[in-house]
């Protein structure tokens, strides 16, 4: 059967309380919070985090491809999937594709993954990652909705799977709303939101009705329903029109973390199956320039429960930190004109040192056994042997050996202080990493502190996105 | 035939430095002229007597190659080499000049250094964008050394007050030096309350940004007899440089409470100069105090005191200008700033004057053996020079 083998999710550290948006612009207050990516996060970094969460305990070399879905990819020429696959340390004889430009890209990627697995005997498992960081225009009501996050599903063909994908159905439709012109628009535009709302309800009910009808499924027998939305009232209208019983359609997310764009249906599905109903049928649907709907079946409740173990992101919204200040949000979105320090870079070095920079490989000395970083160093720090190294994968967690809080970045005081941490990684290897997501570093950074590595955007040197690892206070990732 | 160093084979016959400070209205050529004219006059030579020159420069606007010196002095096509070895750039210029005259290749050589740090702009050393790596963290200079401070606080129980004592002592000394950038004493309270630069190092734990130049004229001792300082030329007892990794944070067993480059350069320098009890034999030392923590650790690594005891010795006066081993009687980098290419030559100039008894207003009593020391990069490059009076 083909179905869901594993899932993963990522939510950033910070929440923006909607009250702060209302206060900033004297708007009527909308309740709840929304998730805000940190200034060093984008769809690549959040996608990597969701991917790491999903592949927890699964050999990355066993994965046959990455389908990445986003309306906010970081490049328009150059894909994101290949970079994410590299960081996740997948093989190179795999398929990497970006699905983009439509809000339903997340669900479309799932459907195309099933097609690919069915059609290609060499492809048995594909990692679907959806991530978005849609930037609302300041002082518009859109600020209440657009939020940041990422979700991942591992679609595989195996004899037993926790959840099977039984059927899927799509429609395509062309309407101009909402849109963002490439190269011209910084923010998403709309023409007539009421028409957009009607279009949303019609599209979703069309695909969901069809998939229920052609599989002879009564709406009352659906156990879980997950479909994206940016307005709780419209979500309720779809649920009502589809005659889903109370509690079937997942509807708490907009209130808690906002509209995650392409990642939202996947995130809703994940939060639904956290508490799986036995033998439940699941409806998953995505909307945007048409719609996709899936019928899924819980094969084994116990296996689904197993899946929910060891996920940092599940329930993480309860640990997220509300921002105390609207301006931090505007700054994180780089909507403030500010001088920023840009380093030099070299795409040649970034490629040549893929193992150290992206994949956190280190060296193990064949003579003395010392594990050290980075890979391009040719001689052993400890026994001085030259070129006696074998490559070893380093662990993404460790303990601070020493640190400082650096107030001087490139000779100026930008975005400071930055904690610079010398970390002894579990299992060996010592690295120097900046710390991110740390509140009150003067009080909270300490020798002996446990940290996790997190993939982040460093700077825009040489006019491309430069990524590397930072550390963060432990979230509890395995 | 094996040669073992240059002990007593090189004599310093002239030394001087320009006024250190924010010399916005002067360029690198003018500062070099100011320093070299002083040194020429001191030695009783002219530029025509110079056979070859070495020049320490680190930063971009001060210039590449040896041309900065040529454009200052017009040495008529004579050999000039620029040396760059982080904060030891100036002392490495001196070291190479020593080899030039000791080998007999040249009779009289000029070793000098200059840096127009203020021309680079910014707060703190600006140039980390000119070297390094695309994405690995490149901590600021204070951040590098503060990682050692954090570790020493944890290992030895040192405190911010211990660091402040270094700043207080050096600024105290600096007030008596006419060429120093800062000539005002400070209080411990001032130092401890200053804004953070890189935790736990505050503003007074860091040396300032300054412009400066210094120059030395050297020759062989037998030739020194015919120059101005025939009776009190200064002999080079040893000159060592040690280079370690520029990224000590990747070194799995490194403890961050000592500087391997200082230890190695010290071993080489003491051996050649036949120093066996440094604390007793060395009367004064110009020790690299780019940051207060650097001076404390260097005093230990140079064996002026036991490991972990530097703050206690400092508190007891061991390193005062009239203490057992005077450390930075000039006021150090804390009072002069650190115009990188010049600092090594500035220190050697200072030690020379002290050993000649010409350090007016700040003379260390009975100074016979002096040491100059630089440590640069992320504790990567260390240079130690030991000087003594002529027989």
Question: How does this model look, in words?
Answer:
The complex is a heterodimer of chains A (478) and B (391). Chain A is of the alpha+beta class and 478 residues long. Chain A contains 13 helices and 20 strands. Helix content of chain A is 24%, strand content 28%. Chain A has a nine-stranded mixed beta sheet, sandwiched between helices. Chain A has a five-stranded antiparallel beta sheet with strand order 18-17-16-19-20. In chain A, strand 19 and strand 20 form a beta hairpin. Chain A is globular. Chain B is built from 14 helices and twelve strands. In chain B, the strands form two sheets. Chain B has a ten-stranded mixed beta sheet with strand order 3-2-4-7-1-8-12-11-9-10, with helices on both faces. The model of chain B has no long low-confidence stretch (mean pLDDT 95).
Keywords:
heterodimer, A: 478 residues, alpha+beta, Peroxisomal Thiolase, Chain A, domain 1, OB fold (Dihydrolipoamide Acetyltransferase, E2P), 9-stranded mixed beta sheet, 5-stranded antiparallel beta sheet, globular, B: 391 residues, alpha/beta, 2 domains, 10-stranded mixed beta sheet, two-stranded antiparallel ribbon, 35% helix, 18% strand
Question: Briefly, what is this?
Answer:
The complex is a heterodimer of chains A (478) and B (391). Chain A is of the alpha+beta class.
Topology:
The complex is a heterodimer of chains A (478) and B (391).
Chain A (H helix, E strand, L loop, with lengths): L1 E9 L3 E4 H8 L7 E4 L6 H12 L10 E6 L10 H7 L7 E6 L4 H15 L5 E9 L14 E10 L5 E10 L20 H22 L7 E6 L4 H10 L11 H4 L7 H9 L8 E7 L2 E9 L2 H7 L13 E2 L3 H7 L14 H6 L1 H4 L3 E5 L5 E2 L16 E5 L3 E10 L11 E8 L4 E5 L6 H4 L5 E10 L6 E8 L5
Parallel strand pairs in A: 2-12, 4-5, 4-6, 9-10
Antiparallel strand pairs in A: 1-7, 1-8, 2-3, 6-7, 8-11, 10-11, 13-14, 13-15, 16-17, 16-19, 17-18, 19-20
Chain B lengths: L10 E7 L10 H16 L8 E5 L10 H7 L6 E4 L5 H14 L6 E8 H4 L20 H16 L3 H15 L13 H6 L2 E3 L2 E2 L8 E9 L1 H4 L9 E10 L16 H14 L4 H4 L2 E3 L5 H10 L8 H6 L10 E2 L4 H5 L3 H16 L13 E8 L4 E9 L2
Parallel strand pairs in B: 2-3, 2-4, 9-10, 9-11
Antiparallel strand pairs in B: 1-7, 1-8, 4-7, 5-6, 8-12, 11-12
């Amino acid at each position: 059967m083909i179905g869901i083998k594993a899932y993963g999710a990522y939510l950033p550290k910070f929440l923006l309380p909607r009250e702060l948006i209302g206060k900033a612009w004297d708007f009527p207050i909308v309740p709840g919070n929304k998730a805000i990516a940190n200034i060093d996060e984008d769809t690549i970094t959040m996608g990597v985090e969701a991917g790491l969460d999903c592949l927890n305990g699964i050999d990355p070399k066993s994965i046959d491809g990455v389908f990445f879905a986003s309306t906010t990819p970081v490049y328009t020429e150059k894909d994101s999937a290949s970079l994410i696959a590299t960081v996740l340390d997948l093989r190179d004889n795999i398929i990497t594709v970006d699905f983009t430009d439509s809000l339903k890209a997340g669900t479309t990627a799932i459907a195309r993954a099933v097609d690919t697995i069915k059609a290609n005997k060499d492809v048995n498992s594909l990692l679907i990652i959806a991530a978005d960081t849609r930037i609302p225009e300041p002082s518009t009501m859109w600020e209440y909705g657009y939020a940041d996050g990422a979700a991942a599903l591992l679609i595989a063909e195996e004899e037993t799977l926790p959840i099977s994908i039984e059927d899927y159905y799509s429609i395509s439709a062309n309407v101009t709303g909402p849109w963002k012109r490439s190269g011209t628009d910084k923010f998403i535009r709309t023409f007539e939101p009421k028409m957009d709302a009607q279009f949303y309800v019609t599209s979703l009910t069309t695909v969901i009705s069809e998939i229920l009808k052609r599989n002879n499924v009564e709406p009352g027998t659906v156990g879980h329903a997950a479909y994206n939305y940016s307005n709780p009232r419209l979500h309720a209208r779809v649920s009502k029109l589809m005659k889903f019983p109370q509690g079937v359609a997942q509807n708490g997310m907009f209130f808690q973390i906002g509209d995650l764009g392409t990642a939202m249906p996947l995130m809703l599905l994940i939060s639904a199956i956290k508490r799986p109903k036995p033998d439940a049928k699941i409806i998953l649907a995505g909307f945007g320039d048409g719609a996709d709907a899936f019928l899924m079946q819980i094969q084994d409740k116990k296996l689904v429960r197993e899946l929910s173990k060891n996920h940092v992101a599940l329930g993480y919204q309860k640990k997220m930190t509300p921002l105390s200040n609207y301006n931090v949000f505007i700054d994180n979105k780089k909507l403030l004109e500010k001088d920023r320090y840009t380093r030099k870079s070299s795409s040649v070095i970034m490629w040549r040192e893929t193992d150290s920079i992206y994949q956190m490989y280190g060296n193990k000395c064949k003579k003395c056994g010392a594990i050290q970083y980075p890979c391009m160093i040719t001689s052993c720090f400890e026994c001085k042997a030259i070129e006696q190294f074998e490559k070893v994968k380093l662990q993404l967690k460790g303990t601070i050996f020493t640190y400082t809080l650096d107030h001087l970045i490139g000779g100026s005081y930008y975005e400071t202080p930055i904690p610079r941490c010398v970390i002894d990684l579990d299992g060996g290897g010592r690295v120097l990493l900046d710390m991110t997501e740390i509140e009150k570093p003067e009080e909270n950074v300490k020798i002996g502190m446990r940290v996790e590595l997190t993939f982040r955007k460093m700077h825009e040197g040489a006019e491309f996105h430069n990524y590397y690892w930072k550390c963060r206070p432990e979230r509890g990732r395995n | 035939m094996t040669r073992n160093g240059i002990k007593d084979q090189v004599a310093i016959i002239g030394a001087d430095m320009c006024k250190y400070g924010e010399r916005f209205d002067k360029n690198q050529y003018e500062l070099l002229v100011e320093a070299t004219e002083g040194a020429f006059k001191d030695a009783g030579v002219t530029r025509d007597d110079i056979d070859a020159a070495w020049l320490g420069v680190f930063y971009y606007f001060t210039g590449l190659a040896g041309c900065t010196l040529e454009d200052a002095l017009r040495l008529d096509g004579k050999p000039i080499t620029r040396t760059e070895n982080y904060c030891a750039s100036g002392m490495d210029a001196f070291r190479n000049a020593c080899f030039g005259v000791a080998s007999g290749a040249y009779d009289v050589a000029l070793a000098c250094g200059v840096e127009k740090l203020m021309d680079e702009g910014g707060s703190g050393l600006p140039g980390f964008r000119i070297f390094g790596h695309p994405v690995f963290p490149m901590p600021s200079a204070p951040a590098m050394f503060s990682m050692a401070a954090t570790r020493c606080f944890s290992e030895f129980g040192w405190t911010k007050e211990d660091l402040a004592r270094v700043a207080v002592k050096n600024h105290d000394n600096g007030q008596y030096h006419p060429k120093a950038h800062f000539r005002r004493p400070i209080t411990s309270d001032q130092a401890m309350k200053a804004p953070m630069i890189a935790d736990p190092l505050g503003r007074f734990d860091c040396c300032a940004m300054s412009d400066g130049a210094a120059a030395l004229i050297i020759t062989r001792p037998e030739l020194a007899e015919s120059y101005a300082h025939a009776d009190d030329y200064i002999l080079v007892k040893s000159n060592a440089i040690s280079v370690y990794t520029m990224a000590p944070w990747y070194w799995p067993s490194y403890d961050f409470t000592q500087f391997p480059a200082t230890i190695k350069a010290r071993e080489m320098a003491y051996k050649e100069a036949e120093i066996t009890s440094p604390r007793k034999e060395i009367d004064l030392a110009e020790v690299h105090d780019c940051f207060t923590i650097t001076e404390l650790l260097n005093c230990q690594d140079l064996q002026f005191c036991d490991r972990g005891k530097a703050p206690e010795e400092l508190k007891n006066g061991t390193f005062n200008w009239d203490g057992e081993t005077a450390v930075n009687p000039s006021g150090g980098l804390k009072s002069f700033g650190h115009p990188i290419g010049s600092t090594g030559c500035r220190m050697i100039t200072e030690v020379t004057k002290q050993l000649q008894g010409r350090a007016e207003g700040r003379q260390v009593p009975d100074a016979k053996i002096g040491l100059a020391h630089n440590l640069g990069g992320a504790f990567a490059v260390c240079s130690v020079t030991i000087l003594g009076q002529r027989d």
